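Task: encode each sequence below as structure tokens.

Item 1
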Amino acid sequence: MTSSPTPGLTRFNALDDGAAAAELHEVCASSAWGSKLLARRPFASAEALFSANETAMAELTAEDLGEAMGGHAPIGRPKPGDPTSAREQRGMAGASQELKNELLELNLAYQEKFGHVFLICATGATGAFMRDAVKVRIDNSPEQERETARGELVKINKIRLTRLVELAEEEGA
């Protein structure tokens, strides 16, 4: 059973394509992903929006995924002045300097091997959890890691899309 659209989703559906594209770009840096979601508007429910996210992410090429990953700051180094990056990486705030240094070294090794930042849905994750994840994932093949990163992007995008609709509801209230 599908729920009806929320006021925030209704507002998002009513945006002109340029404004909607700008909001989607804040969710995911892949222009192909954004175009795929724009083409599926209007969304009847948040669940339909989340399903479109999953479908669009599954359709992205390796190049499109690279563009999406390029919009993310390395773990432990949120983008200065970016509240989304800071909020999502909150789990690193209490990490020891030793853990931060270790994660920096692991991030650099990961980036050297795969050519992009280590991507993980950091919301609610501790620094130790993220460190342990990069230690495991650095042994993946490039193909395995690309698909793992794709799955992490689906989760990140869903959190950001939820926030977009919730913030839209608050702004419209």
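Item 2
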Amino acid sequence: MRVYVPLTLSGLAAAHRAGEVGPGPLTAYAVTPGLREWYVSDDIEELEYAALNRAASASLRLIAGDPGAVRRRVVVAVDVPDGQAVADPDHSLDPSSLGEVRIASTVPLVKAAAVHVDAEDAEKDVAAAAAVLGAADLGDDDAQFTVDGAEDHELLWFGVQEIPNLIG
């Protein structure tokens, strides 16, 4: 199963040093039954893109909680055995947890298929979004517009072998 683990650039650097993403339990995003029902698509690529975007939103939350983090969202795409990623059935249709899964233990970085990271030109919009995320959560339309502006940036695809250049 392909899962998308939200990180920050410093979290990616720590994972690279340790050779694993963790410690567990990890929150990740995947194509779950709830995500399929919400997205109403049978196209696996579209569903995986939706899961990736959910992870990018979670990365933004990590950035908002860490004033020292570089303002670029990071998502690591990792392949794990099907039973290792578990969705909470009580929250499967909760809009805030669509596609969310838990992984009980660390995940070896060698299982990563790719890394998705914002381009440098997204930093200003991601910083602005991180600053108003709480207000957006409380229903502030202007703040939500700012958050949406950051989400308009497409994450770039990088091979795992490129991690040293990303964190360097």
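Check on item 2: The first strand starts at residue 2 and ends at 7. The CA atoms of residues 71 and 127 lie 5 Å apart.
End of task.
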